[in-house]
Amino acid sequence: MAIDFTNINLAWTSILVETLARLGLKTAVICPGSRSAPLAIAFANHPNIDAIPVLDERSAAFFALGVARQQHQPVALVCTSGTAGANFYPAVIEAYESRVPLLIFTADRPPELRDCNAGQAIDQQKLYGSFPNWYTELAIASVEPTLLAYLRQTIIHAWNRALFPVAGVVHLNVPLREPLAPIPEPHIQAQAVSFNATHFFSAIPS
Q: Fewest Cβ atoms nearer than 10 Å: which of 26, 70, 102, 193?
């Protein structure tokens, strides 16, 4: 898939999604929301990933759990910021107890919009306590080559931690700044010329 350099968020999330696709991801379950729009767009646009929208977060989480159990590999589960991710908690515990691999992506406000009475914002750090195999918060979206490489390697590590040494949940908190909609940013679009996808993704184990 061609990386979408429409704007900084779509470049970031399309690299995230392409990395997952090359690792073997087949299914993403998407809960609607504005903060998670760049993630939802990237998953929906990928030709080799079945992006399934589910309105209710609790139902979405258990649906993703069932698909992951059937596929015997990680399924991506995506939601917006705030309390949306809290609705995944029962399925997180079930995945932990059943050793089912899930990759949870909770979109979040950037650091400058936390602890300042901003709407739809809670502390999403380690939201699921000790139940995930691994947790991290991604860096703010960037098209700097070193940060794109960091993103690729972090997603590879997340995939591996969802499977080994035992299968389970990996939680990635994804802070995203505006614009969340696919609004063109010409200075970002110019970066597409210098991006060599073949070379960049050659680091992913086949």
A: 193
In a domain, 3, yes or no: no
16-49: pLDDT as tens digits = 999 999 999 999 999 999 999 999 999 999 999 9
Structure pTM?
0.96
Beta-carbon neighbour count of residue 173 at 10 Å? 19
- Total structural domains within the chain: 1
Range of the structural domain that residue 101 is part of? 8-203
Query: Rounded mean pLDDT of 49-53?
Result: 98
Question: What is the CATH classification number for the domain harbouring 96?
Answer: 3.40.50.970
The Cα 157–Cα 160 span in angstroms is: 5
Q: Is residue 99 part of a domain?
A: yes
CB 97 within 8 A of CB 123: no
Tens digits of residue pLDDT in 24-33: 999 999 999 9
* Structure tokens that stand for 117 in this block: 């009475």
The C-alpha atoms of residue 36 and residue 96 are separated, in whole angstroms, by 25
Q: If we measure between CA atoms, which residue out of 32, 50, 39 comes closest to residue 15?
A: 39
CA-CA-CA-CA torsion for 195, 137, 104, 191, nearest 10 degrees? Answer: -10
Q: What value does the mean pLDDT take over residues 121-144?
A: 94
Give domain status of residue 1, yes or no: no
Instruction: Quote the CA–CA distance of 71 and 116 in Å, as a whole number.
Output: 42
Query: 90 in a domain, yes or no?
Result: yes
